[in-house]
């Protein structure tokens, strides 16, 4: 995976899936976390970021996913636990082969290598009421861009 640490800082190259179904978006979180995020994972060496999503969805949910198109390229600075992240993220509109397998209004378990995950569909209209990272997704998921947008996000306190 494409990441490296320097002291308490980490560089991370991540790919994330925007999976929409019937005015809902699929989000996930680690059981111990208090925030939700888009499903995805770290890109491997010589792996296209779009291919990362098919692999990650298969690993975490046991489902087949198809990447439709890129939405956002994001430079994201944030802190998670005691580590400050400099993350490059590609976010793609993605669809599941059978999205109805994950029921609405119910938590659905998933597995990352050493972390238990929870997946859940959220109505787009309720995103303002949850902790979602990065925060720009609360508004941007309601109106997806026609082309790729480049965004910078700095959530690290100066």
TrEMBL record:
Its cofactor is Mg(2+). InterPro entries: NUDIX_hydrolase-like_dom_sf, NUDIX_hydrolase_CS, NUDIX_hydrolase_dom. GO terms for molecular function: hydrolase activity. The keyword Plastid does not apply. Keywords: Hydrolase. It comes from the Bacteria. The keyword Nucleotide-binding does not apply. Residues 8-146 form the Nudix hydrolase domain. This is NTP pyrophosphohydrolase including oxidative damage repair enzyme. It comes from Hahella chejuensis (strain KCTC 2396).
